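Chain A, query sequence.
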Amino acid sequence: MSSLASEERSGIVGRMTDGLAGPPAGSAVASGLWHFSYTVRDLDRSIDFYCRLIGMELVHRQRQANPYTERLVAYRNAALDVAMLRIPNCPVDVSGHHLELVQYLHPAGAPIDTTTNRPGVAHLAFAVGDIHAMYDRLVAGGVRFKSAPVPIEAGRNKGGFAVYFNDFDGIPLELLQPPQSAR
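Chain A, predicted structure.
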């Protein structure tokens, strides 16, 4: 029996949608995902981390210091250095990239507490084929993990493995090796 069927029987699915009628007919709704973005301290270092260690590729890099950017981010005289990255051989929508990295040249911000239990803190999970090999490679590259890969013992990813770590800015990330049945 599928896990969705058991969730429906237990009422989990119903509880997730209780009281949510959905958007009114004809309303504007999201039609896709453009990208996920992180603000970083040093764009060159972050590009190196995500490309060399994670395996992404740089699609485009641009400097933004114009009236449009000032209005968008709501900072006078804003100047940003922006990189767009993608995961090779992974479907991507019209934007052409999965991850946007932004360094605020002006105004530069201070680091924040990115502990994963804090509301508003996000993480990005990367699917991998061999989590143990990726873990070993990242450890050799200086990455610090919260643990070794953990077997997933319950839920829809039961039989897989997951592990949390941070990039060099403290941004929470995850590696997830799906269960054999999902590959």
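The radius of gyration is 19 Å. The helical segments are 3-10, 12-17, 43-54, 67-73, 131-140.
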